[in-house]
Design a protein that fits this description.
- The chain is α+β, with helices and mostly antiparallel strands.
- It has one domain.
- Strands 1, 2, 3, 4 and 5 form a five-stranded antiparallel sheet that branches.
- α2 crosses α9, α4 packs across α5 and α7 runs antiparallel to α8.
- The longest helix is centred in the middle third of the chain and has 23 residues.
- The protein starts with 6 loop residues before the first helix and ends with a helix.
């Protein structure tokens, strides 16, 4: 498979275990792992992809069966999505001796509480749904989706600049579609019904704002975006990492 996908390769993928559609994904360019994976193979994968793709091996510890209390206390390891970053950051704040938090820190702690509650209810409603703690987030490629992905990276845990890429869902175990405005509404007014509506895939109104929670792989399909990532890699990776990718023919 090519590092990026052209239209013919996308058509071939759609005959396999591919979720239909073209989407966008966002990541912090200081998240070296995402850049490494995109440059090395043209794709990134959710934490539990090893559970259905044996070629990757047992590289991650699953969060899906981890006790809620352990997630709440930040007892997980490895790279994570924005939700994991929030939980980890807020847990570190809560462990500090001082509680004189900034507004951004207060936001992170409140958002952590929200995410824990959403995960609790997911397990009660349908444990087969993709987990917000464990997934890759993608949206439709439109203005609403781009704004939503940008907002997901707000907060004092963010370290770098946001980068958007066009992707297809090239292999998956589960994809859960939900109207992300239920999350926003619960943040302002913690009504349990909002969580139920989210996990049941109910739209807030006649113009839903969908996000897709992917347990699987997302793959680049635009050559120019892969070339942009190569340029970012040259500027952000260590000289040793750059040399490795040059030897592999990726830079």
């Amino acid at each position: 498979m090519a590092i990026y996908l052209d239209n013919e390769e996308i058509k071939k993928l759609f005959k396999k275990n591919v979720f239909p559609g073209k989407f966008i994904h966002a990541f912090d360019i200081n998240g070296i792992l995402a850049i490494n994976n995109f440059i090395a193979g043209g794709f990134i994968f959710s934490r539990d992809v090893c559970l259905f793709d044996e070629s990757l091996g047992p590289t991650h510890v699953s969060l899906l069966n981890m006790p809620i209390e352990d997630i709440q206390n930040g007892k997980f390891q490895g790279a994570g999505n924005p939700v994991m970053m929030i939980i980890s950051h807020a847990t570190n704040l809560e462990n500090l001796p001082s509680s004189n938090y900034s507004n951004g820190e207060k936001w992170a702690i409140k958002r952590k509480s929200l995410e824990i509650e959403f995960e609790k209810q997911r397990r009660k409603i349908d444990s087969n749904l993709s987990s917000r703690v464990n997934c890759l987030f993608v949206t439709d490629d439109d203005e609403i989706g781009r704004l939503h992905l940008s907002n997901m990276f707000n907060g004092s845990y963010r370290t770098g600049s946001l980068h958007l890429v066009s992707v297809v869902i090239s292999n998956y175990k589960s994809v859960t579609r939900a109207d992300f405005r239920w999350v926003d509404q619960y943040f302002e007014n913690p009504n349990p019904k909002f969580i139920e509506n989210y996990w049941q895939g109910i739209a807030v109104d006649s113009q839903p704002h969908w996000e897709y929670l992917v347990e699987g792989k997302i793959h680049l399909y635009k050559k120019n975006e892969f070339e942009e990532l190569q340029e970012i890699a040259r500027k952000t990776l260590s000289p040793e990492q750059v040399n490795i990718f040059k030897v592999l023919g990726r830079l």
